[in-house]
């Protein structure tokens, strides 16, 4: 029995000798296994994922660049249209002002012509009335002379 205990104690000493850090052939094998799995994962998983992420990043950059370019172009077009609109409004206001001035001139000329025509009609009417008055006075004078002659003759005849 003593031999069995002795053998067990020797075996315990040899098995506990290496412990957690046993530097035998398993360590390089574990290192090779780790490197192999790393390389395998790199080719199978990491490269496609990195490729997809790079493609996505490039797509996002291109989209942002094209969106920025479109935004700049839209801003330029907006400014261009705003300046054209402002110019159009100014020219429309100028045309309206010119048309109003022209209309006022035409109206004032028409009013002046109407006043002249009215003055001419009044002077013609006054002249005609003066002529008619003179004619009426002359005819009345003639009639008065005739009547006075008749009255005289009647008075003298009596």
TrEMBL record:
Main location per the UniProt record: membrane
GO molecular function: proton-transporting ATP synthase activity, rotational mechanism; proton-transporting ATPase activity, rotational mechanism
GO cellular component terms attached to this protein's record: chloroplast thylakoid membrane; proton-transporting ATP synthase complex
Protein localization: Membrane; Plastid, Chloroplast thylakoid membrane
Keywords of the record: ATP synthesis, CF(0), Chloroplast, Hydrogen ion transport, Ion transport, Membrane, Plastid, Thylakoid, Transmembrane, Transmembrane helix, Transport
InterPro entries per UniProt: ATP_synth_b (IPR034679), ATP_synth_B-like_membr_sf (IPR028987), ATP_synth_b/b'su_bac/chlpt (IPR002146), ATP_synthase_B_chain (IPR050059)
Record-annotated membrane-spanning stretches: 25-46
SUPFAM superfamilies named among the record's database cross-references: F1F0 ATP synthase subunit B, membrane domain
Record's subunit section: F-type ATPases have 2 components, F(1) - the catalytic core - and F(0) - the membrane proton channel. F(1) has five subunits: alpha(3), beta(3), gamma(1), delta(1), epsilon(1). F(0) has four main subunits: a(1), b(1), b'(1) and c(10-14). The alpha and beta chains form an alternating ring which encloses part of the gamma chain. F(1) is attached to F(0) by a central stalk formed by the gamma and epsilon chains, while a peripheral stalk is formed by the delta, b and b' chains.
NCBIfam families, per database record: PRK07353.1
Role noted for this protein: F(1)F(0) ATP synthase produces ATP from ADP in the presence of a proton or sodium gradient. F-type ATPases consist of two structural domains, F(1) containing the extramembraneous catalytic core and F(0) containing the membrane proton channel, linked together by a central stalk and a peripheral stalk. During catalysis, ATP synthesis in the catalytic domain of F(1) is coupled via a rotary mechanism of the central stalk subunits to proton translocation. Component of the F(0) channel, it forms part of the peripheral stalk, linking F(1) to F(0). The b'-subunit is a diverged and duplicated form of b found in plants and photosynthetic bacteria.
Protein family according to the UniProt entry: Belongs to the ATPase B chain family.
Other known facts: In plastids the F-type ATPase is also known as CF(1)CF(0).
Protein name in the entry: ATP synthase subunit b', chloroplastic
Organism of provenance: Polysiphonia sertularioides
């Amino acid at each position: 029995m003593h031999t069995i205990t002795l053998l067990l104690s020797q075996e315990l000493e040899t098995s506990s000798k290496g412990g957690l850090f046993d530097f035998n052939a398993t360590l390089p094998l574990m290192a090779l296994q780790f490197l192999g799995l790393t390389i395998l994962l790199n080719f199978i998983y990491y490269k496609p994922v990195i490729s997809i992420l790079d493609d996505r990043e490039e797509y996002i950059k291109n989209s942002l660049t094209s969106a920025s370019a479109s935004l700049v172009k839209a801003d330029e077009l907006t400014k261009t249209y705003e300046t054209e609109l402002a110019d159009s409004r100014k020219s429309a206001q100028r045309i309206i002002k010119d048309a109003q001035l022209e209309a006022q001139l035409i109206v004032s000329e028409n009013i002046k012509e109407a006043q002249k025509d009215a003055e001419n009609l009044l002077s013609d009417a006054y002249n005609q009335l003066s002529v008619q008055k003179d004619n009426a006075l002359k005819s009345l004078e003639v009639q008065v002379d005739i009547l006075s002659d008749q009255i005289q003759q009647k008075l003298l005849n009596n």
